[in-house]
Known about the structure:
Blueprint: H1 8-38, H2 53-78, H3 83-104, H4 113-135
Amino acid sequence: MTxxxxxxxxxxxxxxxxxxxxxxxxVVLALIMAFIYLSQFDFSRLAYWRRGFGVFLTFILxxxxxxxxxxxxxxxxxxxxxxxxxxxxxxxxxxxxxxxGLLLVSAFGSISRVTQLALFAIQAFIYSWAAELLLHVE
Length: 138
């Protein structure tokens, strides 16, 4: 017997599952990165109960969360039914998150805030590039 390509219903169900898996992966990694990033700040002098602290915290969290937002949106639009390509992309996102987390906790030495911002931009570019190479099939 030869393996037959999946029918349209199975292909659609696989796409739905892959999109959910991509979304959950991005959400979990973004939350972990947000906690790592926030651990660098000293909030002891801030009045967290005051009005406007949530907006302040949101602006602080934009740089580390932006690569995951960009990657989640783009990878959702180009996701494929191929499981190996999806696994490869998820591996790239996980490895990039681990590397960025290590950089943020100064495992390789201290880096400045400007360098951190540049690294977040590079991270977003790498995730988009990986999504294009691994997930986009025409």
